[in-house]
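Course assignment 3, question 2. Fill in each field.
Student: A.L.
Task: Predict the tertiary structure for the chain below.
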Amino acid sequence: MKKRHFQRGIYLLIVVLAVTIPAYLLQAGGPPLKEKPCAVCHKDYLKILPKSHPAVGEAAKNPCLSCHQPDKARNEATKFSTFIHNAHKEGGKVTLTCDACHAL
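Answer field:
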């Protein structure tokens, strides 16, 4: 009887963790990013900027994320974050796994 309760407890713990961990990671900001994640693949990132993008100037030292940081107080994805994730997930221009940009 005790063994059955223990097994049910373990099963319940696994289910709870399987649901809560991905939900936690999908919050705004998600897992921390690696250093200069965009520059790893985009050596000349100026080529991928839309023509309407403002001049980057000094931001060129830390491309993209020097201006496009998430607002942690709002706890929601930014337009930039949504665009980047859509462009790099399955069905986008290139399919990458999360650990290509995020330090997991």
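Instructor remarks: Residues 28 and 76 are 5 Å apart (CA to CA). Residues 2-100 form one domain.
Grade: pending
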